[in-house]
Amino acid sequence: MASIQSAPTAPAFDPATIDGTNRRLLEELREDPRATYAALGRRVGLSPPAVAERVGRLEAAGVIAGYRTEIEPAAVGLPVAAFVRVRPAARQLPKVAELARDTPAVSECHRITGEDCFLLKVHAASIAALEDVLDAFLLFGQTTSSLVVSSPVAPRGVPLGTEEVG
Q1: Domain boundaries in the chain?
Q2: Topology of the domain covering 73-147
Q3: What is the mean predicted confidence (pLDDT) over 35-55?
Q4: What are residue 113's phi and psi, to 5 degrees?
Q5: 118: Cβ–Cβ under 8 A, 6 or more apart, which residues?
Q6: Is residue 2 pLDDT above 50, yes or no?
Q7: pLDDT band per the 50, 70, 90 thresholds, residue 6
Q8: CA distance 129 to 81
Q9: Mean pLDDT, to the nearest integer, of 126-143?
Q10: pTM
């Protein structure tokens, strides 16, 4: 039987050790993950080797979990986006998690609290393709879907505590 994986845990890292310079580096990397160490150094007032050392420590500590390219789903033929809540039937929790991992249309899967156990983000080429994904999950429980009609706030990075509120 497949196990449900919890969120990856980072090595122990004391948030107090993230000083102002590290926060500025993280902000710059969030804005431009492809920036060179020289460019980052100019923006935060460090030499490229000092930036490389700090970024390396942040990566090793699990603060920087990775770098990724964001792709516009509609541009690659996936204009339909939906959030799907799944309430598994008895003893079907591991099967839902496994199906989510094995379904390419599922871009996110979160174990959540409340009446439902999972929240999925699904991208599909059409409503019919979304229906096929939903039908696969219906074998293991009940689904509730919400189509995305617009996204006034695009996905963005984790707040670093330096942004102003308001």
Answers
A1: 18-60, 73-147
A2: Alpha-Beta Plaits (3.30.70)
A3: 96
A4: -95, 170
A5: 85, 86, 88, 96, 97, 100, 109, 110, 111, 112
A6: no
A7: low
A8: 11
A9: 98
A10: 0.78
Q: Do domains 18-60 and 73-147 have the same CATH topology?
A: no
> Phi and psi of 85, rounded to 5°?
-95, 135
Spell out the alpha helix ranges (H) of the chain: 20-31, 37-44, 48-60, 93-102, 127-138
Residue 7 CB-half CA count within 13 A: 10
Q: Is-contact 28 46, C-beta < 8 A?
A: no
Strand partners, 53: none
d(CA 61, CA 80): 37
CATH number for domain 18-60, candidates 3.30.750.24, 3.30.428.10, 1.10.10.10, 1.10.150.650:
1.10.10.10
